[in-house]
Amino acid sequence: MTVREGSAEVKLPDAVFYNPVQEFNRDITIAVIRNFLKMHLREFIDKGIKIAASKNAPPEPTNYVGISILEALAASGLRSVRFANEIPLVCKITANDLDPEATKLISENAQRNNVSGLVKPTCSDAVSLMLNTTPGTAYGKYGGVAIKMTAQHEQVSYNQHVSKGQAVMSNNCEGLRLLLYAIQQAASRHGKVIEPLLSLSIDFYARVFVRVRSSPGSVKHVAAKMALVYSCTGCQVSAHSNMREPFQCA
Question: Among the record's GO biological process terms, what is one (predicted)?
């Protein structure tokens, strides 16, 4: 079976399940990473100008190396191939899967689309790979968040982008806030803070894109942004109570 999606054309065995509904999900991921790249490049340029100004000298030309992308659960590699074709300034894409047959399929599809120079297939456990990958990676991920979040925050060093999906929600807003809270809790243990970029409620699951920054000092103020919500079981009226007041120097 041959599947054409976006700029990619991949070959899938008949036994492989292809869900065309997820094309929207892949489109969103590509759009978010492209916009993140614009932000990242602008900040890279501004940083160079700021450093030059502090030295009272003209900015020195420096090369922007781009970003690397890790798709920890790549399956056929369709998403990674689309990343390579549709996202500029990408220096490396690691497409991982635990199944050796899937890894072989990723390699074949990368060659089929002439992106084998960018897409590097690996066969490994997703959590182990994230714990041992060089920092500086953006992800597109599915599945439960409990174990994988710790590995992601271990892997991310500074100013990077992480995508998380989590199934099963009740109230849309509450579900998104709980997911963001869980991600921040995992980040705090590693001296990092998150900045939500985009939060989505799609069908039966939530999808959030966050930016992760290394900032042990900012972690101390995270509790001021957290609150407990009290909801009446009778009239459904709710109220919130901040965990702590914002810290102010005397």
Answer: tRNA N2-guanine methylation
User: Per residue in 108-143, pLDDT tens?
Assistant: 999 999 999 999 999 999 888 887 776 555 555 555
Beta bridge partners of residue 138, listed in sequence order: 69
CB of 91 within 8 A of CB of 115?
Answer: no
- Beta-sheet strands, E only, within the chain: 2-5, 8-11, 67-71, 90-97, 119-123, 137-139, 160-167, 192-202, 205-214, 227-231, 238-242
For residues 203-212, average pLDDT: 84
Cβ 70 vs Cβ 154: under 8 Å: no
d(CA 139, CA 207) in angstroms, rounded, equals 12
- The CATH-assigned architecture of domain 1-132 is 3-Layer(aba) Sandwich (3.40)
Strand partners, 179: none
Residue whose tokens read 């992308």: 69
Q: Whole-angstrom Cα distance, residue 209 to residue 35?
A: 12
Enumerate residues 6+ apart whose C-beta is below 8 A from 57. Answer: none
Q: Are 126 and 96 in contact (CB under 8 A)?
A: yes
> What is the average per-residue pLDDT within 18-30?
88
Cα–Cα–Cα angle for 39, 45, 47, rounded to 5 degrees: 100
Phi and psi angles of residue 180, each rounded to the nearest 5 degrees, phi first = -65, -40
Range(s) within the chain of domains with CATH label 3.40.50.150: 1-132
The whole model's pTM is what?
Answer: 0.80
* H or E element at residue 47: helix 23-54
Beta bridge partners, 228, equal: 241
